[in-house]
Amino acid sequence: MAVPTQKPSSPHQKLEQIVILGLPSFLKRQDKEFSSKFQFLSPSESNLPLDQFLEAEAQNTQAAVCSAGFKISAEVLHHLPSLRLIVTVSAGLNHIDLSECRKRGISVANAGNIYSADVADLAVGMIIDVMRKISAGNRFVKTGLWPKQGNFPLGSKLGGKQVGIVGLGSIGVEVAKRLEAFGCKISYYSRKKKHFSSYTFHSNIHDLAFASDILVICCALTEQTRHMINREVLLALGKEGLIVNVARGAVIDEKELVRCLVQQKIAGAGLDVFEHEPHVPRELFGLDNVVVSPLLS
Amino acid sequence: MAVPTQKPSSPHQKLEQIVILGLPSFLKRQDKEFSSKFQFLSPSESNLPLDQFLEAEAQNTQAAVCSAGFKISAEVLHHLPSLRLIVTVSAGLNHIDLSECRKRGISVANAGNIYSADVADLAVGMIIDVMRKISAGNRFVKTGLWPKQGNFPLGSKLGGKQVGIVGLGSIGVEVAKRLEAFGCKISYYSRKKKHFSSYTFHSNIHDLAFASDILVICCALTEQTRHMINREVLLALGKEGLIVNVARGAVIDEKELVRCLVQQKIAGAGLDVFEHEPHVPRELFGLDNVVVSPLLS
């Protein structure tokens, strides 16, 4: 029978530390599987303020996992001097100070394209919902109005509509593929013409909006795309136009979007993202032609 | 100057009569265009009961236009002895007593496939809505719950799901084409294997339901299909299964459907049609996993 020659190490002594910023719920659910390999540091479960927690616990931590809702600013990075890797569970990187990461030699990895199909499904679902009044009709029936008020007003037809994709990346391509099956005609705007695509390219966003019945925002949020969808673009989309945003809230100037919807300068919106989540402008709450989606987890 | 040689005829003397049964609203909107050619008889605008109206006004009427909500029974036909043609603005014919029409030599025309693409769009919209909780999430945000209760529960992924189409007619084909673009796998049940299609054929509805994550009802309502979707079929679809009906309400045994939804024997439903429209079972009103659509006009 073998005799232990040394005491077993303390449970966390040799485990790699990972600091969790924004607490992706999948990690919490799976932590039994990972806990034999990693020691998770969770500032959100500590009573200390973030900076004090990081100073006290995470000075040697080399890896962080974060979600899109957690801003990784230069100041946060300052409190993590040993950090070498950030993994975000989001596709977008706009919550991470990338130039500060570059300066400090921190690698950043994101979720790549794994959500693209699901985001595209939601975009198409919101388009059909607004055009065919699915949420509004559902509410009409469930509040008992059908027998009292008679039939509900017809919506719009999807087939034959001109759809403008803003940002023909992996999400934009998936949205286009689905909408082609509905008989929509696809065109797009992006920084450069995509040579893999035969869709009509517009070299500026105004032209795309003007040519489109439905504008679907699928681009990354960067300093170049922040508030790219402003009042002029919305007016170019026009009174019959529908806008759908599955990118980031701040790609649209939200105040102008609300104004255009209230003033009926555009026909409707499907919004999966907002500038100041979880806060959604209250003016949208009463609009049947606007379908909004919260963050899911 | 030409002198009239005879009095002008009374406005309706030589116009063909058309009796409108169920009052399709598009005819009311366009009646200026048609009124120079046809005299429209509208029993719904008369104070007389239908049979008395038809006896008094429509004994020579050869043509009727009707909608799906108006039952053209043998008794109605009895009051229209000169009738030669019924045009229904619906695709379905289940509201017309076809054997009585055959006996009386009355031709029947329907709307053919003109609605198929739009019905398919609605079917796909309801699938995405239920699976991705679009209506429920919209209500969650618009009642101000997001900042108070935090994120909303995740829905299900559409990609990779097994979709069973019940009735691979023009609507079924359009539904299948769209869902293929979402990465779904298609199989179907119909009276006979369709040689134009490479989708997997099931020769009985139980096998299809058992093999499917999502069952989409697209068949005509006939004596053979009435209550074809019974408790056994719903149990075969199972706890994770979603049912969508864009055909006619009575293809499903509605009482059993409600029971299965309340008892969580199936995961959810998207319902465009009901057995006793405009009456929708109240048990469905509180279920977030059920999306219902009223009649539109």
Automatic annotation (TrEMBL), chains A, B:
The keyword Oxidoreductase appears for this protein: yes
InterPro entries (UniProt xref): D-isomer_2-hydroxyacid_DH (IPR050223), D-isomer_DH_CS1 (IPR029752), D-isomer_DH_NAD-bd (IPR006140), NAD(P)-bd_dom_sf (IPR036291)
Domain D-isomer specific 2-hydroxyacid dehydrogenase NAD-binding: 124-294
Classification via CDD domains: HPPR
Keywords: NAD, NADP, Oxidoreductase
Species this protein is from: Fraxinus pennsylvanica
Protein name: D-isomer specific 2-hydroxyacid dehydrogenase NAD-binding domain-containing protein
Organism superkingdom: Eukaryota
Entry's Gene Ontology cellular component terms: cytosol
Coiled coil location: none
Gene Ontology MF, one: hydroxypyruvate reductase [NAD(P)H] activity
